[in-house]
Amino acid sequence: MFNLFKRKEKFLLLDVSTEKISGLLISLDSQKRIKKEKFWENIERHSSRRWPSIPIFNKTIVACNPELAVKIFIPLSISRESGAGVLERVELENLLAQAIGKVFNHYRREASLVLGEDELDTILADSNVSCFEVDGHKVINPLGFSPNEIKALMEMTFSARRTYERIKTALNKPNFFLTEKGQAQSEAIKRLGYKKADFLSLGCDKSYFYPGYVPGTPYSRRELKWSTNGFISDIGNRWNLGEKAAEDVYYYYLKKGVSPVMDRYLSKILSKNARDLGDRVKKIKTAPSVCFTGDVPVELIGRSLFYEPPLENFLSKSGFSAESDVLHSGPEAFQTLAPFLEFYYDNSDNEINGWLKRRLHWLGSAV
Q1: Distances from the Cα of 290 to the Cα of 91, 124, 146, angstroms
Q2: Span between the terminal Cα atoms of the chain, in Å
Q3: Fewest CB atoms less than 10 Å from the CB: which of 91, 92, 280, 325?
Q4: How far is it, in rounded angstroms, from Cα 60 to Cα 173?
């Protein structure tokens, strides 16, 4: 990892959607207090030249919308001959590279289908290997042991080549940490102590479910056939409203801008769609309750099944604090800061992952 303990470290957080790339500059002082420094609505306006007002940062964190990137988790199990001796660097590097090489094309093909891209234009944007076990015992680093079996968890983040090139052009630099927004939020929830926590990202067009724990099998997020647009359609159909007018009504309701009588009436109109969401989630959840973000009131979909991310607990349990202007937006602030926390605790720059990244170049890696 980068040295994060200097005074006033600065981090550039990029939010990448199909429409634009916005930028947020934050600073971190010696007490691990987060402060907003500057915000850019759309940095691609400066893509034809180096930004006149934005310096180049080593600590750049890129968070892509789910339609632009996908992370796949793949458990690896590697056997060695009995009596093979102490595991050393070259052997581990070869064993990992061989194990990943056997499955890479399969999972790139899966990722290309998820992203709607040609397989050859689907690239490995980031990778990480962790959760090592030697003969059934968890270890941080398997080197120096004499195991017959090595287990590990491989994480591969894929994106479209054009998305990756678009980010590089906007940044005018080749190196950055890339993650997928929903996956970063899922990892942040686990840092609160919910090791098996499920996470749900609810969107106006698409929603995605991120399982908390799927032991022994490859897993990734899955698209949930549900969106908040269903609520807007319900309102429009009930009152014969156009889409924009129905959307305005829904967001007044969402922000508690309607009378108590109207609130109860709208809740009744929307209850069928809310129950549909609950029924879908109950079929796939791996934990008793599911954390979610999105423009949906938790009271409507039910606190017995869903809960919102507790931002202040999330920061304090991670050893951070933040100024009030960071915290005031609640769930939005959680979505913004989750990629930063994933980067902060990332171990992909450790020795083993350093070797592995170099070996993965020949597999179509962009890193």
Answers
A1: 41, 29, 41
A2: 16
A3: 325
A4: 10
